[in-house]
Amino acid sequence: MMLIKLGTTTNDSRTVNKSITWDETAINCTIKDDVSIFNPSFILNYNSNFLSKNYVSAFGKYYFIENIVLLDGGRCMIVCKEDVLYTYHAELNNMNFTIVRNEGKRNLEIDDSEYTLSQGFKEFIYPYSGFGGYGESNTTVLEVLGGVS
Asked: Where do the domains of the chain lie?
């Protein structure tokens, strides 16, 4: 038997410093046989309040609840996946580093071999009625996207 804490967070999984609301009492559970510390499964007595939870603290680590499986005998199995960002958030917050890849932004000053342009191009041709009222009525705008990898 061991104790785990259940909680709830609304933060994105990619957030390092999450805001977590923890339940006041820890819950007794058993661990599924041959469990991974990175993806553990906990077996405990079922409570419908578990359905609103999405976070677990155990082994000094933090986990997302991936699934809740109902078992016989009024028990359930909570299947988890480690949240490495929050597990190591204190260490990450004390580090100085440069982020070289971001899904939404690119720093052109940093060489990024993963960022390539495809060969070829794509044309978009559409009529434009003029620039602020100035220009020909049948003006055409050509936009070309592409480049060389």
From this structure: 2-93, 110-149
Domain 2-93 carries which CATH code? 2.40.10
Longest distance between any two alpha carbons in the chain, whole Å: 80
How far is the C-alpha of 74 from the C-alpha of 127, rounded, in Å? 67
Would you place residue 125 in the very low, low, confident or very high pLDDT band (cuts 50, 70, 90)?
Answer: low
Identity at 70, one-letter amino acid code: L
Distance CA 19, CA 86 (A): 10
H or E stretch covering 45: strand 41-45
- CA–CA dist 119, 61 (Å, integer): 45
Q: Which residues contact 14 (CB under 8 A, 6 or more apart)?
A: 85
Q: What is the per-residue pLDDT for 138?
A: 57
| Residues 116 and 92: beta-carbon distance below 8 Å | no
pTM, to two decimals: 0.66
Alpha carbons 22 and 27: distance in angstroms, whole number:
12
